[in-house]
Amino acid sequence: MGLLAADTVGHLQHVSTMTLGIGGAESNVAIALARLGTSVAWIGRLGADSLGDRVVRELRAEGVEVHAVRDPAAPTGLMLKERPPGGGVRVWYYRSQGAGARLSPSDVDDELVARASLLHVTGITPALGEAPAKAVAHAVAVARDAGVPVSVDVNHRATLWSDAEAAPVLRGLVESADVLFAGDDEARLVLGTDATEPATLAAGLADLGPGEVVVKLGDRGALALVGGLLVEQAAFPVTLVDPVGAGDAFVGAYLAERVAGLDVPGRLRTAARAGALMCTVPGDWEALPTRALLDSDRMGPDVRR
């Protein structure tokens, strides 16, 4: 989507200037992968408009291969970000009638998916409507038939659909995953449980089929359950500026290390560092780290306050 972010603190009715950029979970993950040296392609649907041009330009500038259908009948989605008094960030989405909500199975490049080393999808796309949900199911089926591992980030968006609507669809998506990412609240939704222990939630998700389950816990860190082995990772302490995109940074960094062949503790550590960095700078993806930054002394064992 296009992104308009307020330049100053205050409610939007009092903000006079905003900065134009792009944002969105899947594109954030794609950029994170590219910055860490992974060859990555992004599949989507954009309006045949200047905002769509901006999305394509930014993604390509970040080294992402773009496969975007340009739709003359619907605009590119948009989100507005405000910084209300008292701290924090609030985001408003305008995409239910956008081009992304018209994504269909025919927009998916089957050959591209079949030759990938991994397919990554999120629970956001099925929430946009019946056609996008079918597009995700089609991409997953193509990957399965080709022996391509499927990565799923639950990414439940309560503003797009109710918990009752989302739960069965997200559960089906989880069941199709080889690698799964979920917050603890998302895990409870999928499992229909009140359990709070992260290890219990991870085990419940693994019982649905994924061989690799990662539970994101925000400032409490994360854990992964892989082949029956539980690995925990503490969060790196930072001064919070903007949390938007931190989860995507985590997922992108984890997948980059997985593709590179790093072990699970190494994947989690890189992911936690990337997520911490994202929290220190405004923007959805601008602070995503490069490999050089992660390997430098500036990102040593401790992220300084």
Automatic annotation (TrEMBL):
InterPro entries: Carboh/pur_kinase_PfkB_CS, PfkB_Carbo_kinase, PfkB_dom, Ribo/fructo_kinase, Ribokinase-like. Pfam families: PfkB (PF00294). One of its GO terms (molecular function) is kinase activity. The keyword Transferase applies. CDD domains: KdgK. It comes from the Bacteria. Keywords: ATP-binding, Kinase, Nucleotide-binding, Transferase. The keyword ATP-binding applies. Residues 11-290 form the Carbohydrate kinase PfkB domain. Belongs to the carbohydrate kinase PfkB family. This is Sugar kinase. It comes from Pseudonocardia xishanensis.
